Amino acid sequence: MKYKSVLVISDLHIPYHHPDAFAFLKALKAKYKFDHIVNIGDELDQHAISMHEHNPDLYSPGHELEQSKKYVKELEKIFPKMTLVHSNHSSLVYRRALKYGLPKAYLKHYNEFLGVGKGWIWVDDHTITLSDNSRCFFTHGLSADVLKVAQQYGMNTVQGHYHTKFSIGYYSNPDALIWGMQVGCLIHQKSMAFDYAKNFKSRFIVGCGIIINGQPKLMPMVLKENGRWNGHIV
Q: What is the pLDDT of residues 155-166, one digit of tens each?
């Protein structure tokens, strides 16, 4: 199957996502009529079971999961069908189990513990054919230089993970023009879950990416001075 209009979402970090993230995604859906939705990871934050320090003023593991499920159900109503790529935050429950020697038989699948239907499918990575016959590879984050990943795989590449990176780069060879797109994030930087970055000089870039007729386009979520979305698709 070939896809003409693709939405790429990354790094929502639910329940610490931007308060206008879903409204922004709804507006993009209405404008572009996507025929394929890819979420390239960290749809969940799972701060409470992080490998790093847990802020005691944030949710407990159980409370965070319950809050996350409410938002996940809201997102599922917007996008009943979605391909999701495994990632470092969303897979924390499985990483923790591996660390402490728990076999997979004890664990629930994402669909079950989040309460979502079979329209959401989790994969290690994802490759599709675009409407211009080019191939596109989706991964959570293999390198800080997405164009290097595109060169290694020999096809267009999209990744997230790096919250401060929001770019499109190109390289060419005698046979093709190939691009790499880095799509930023959709987090709420003022949340205590991101206190580790409060003194960073480089701020997180809020937005996502789309692919129309085989060509990439960055969609920044432009914020007002108060940190809320200005309500416009640019």
A: 999 999 999 999
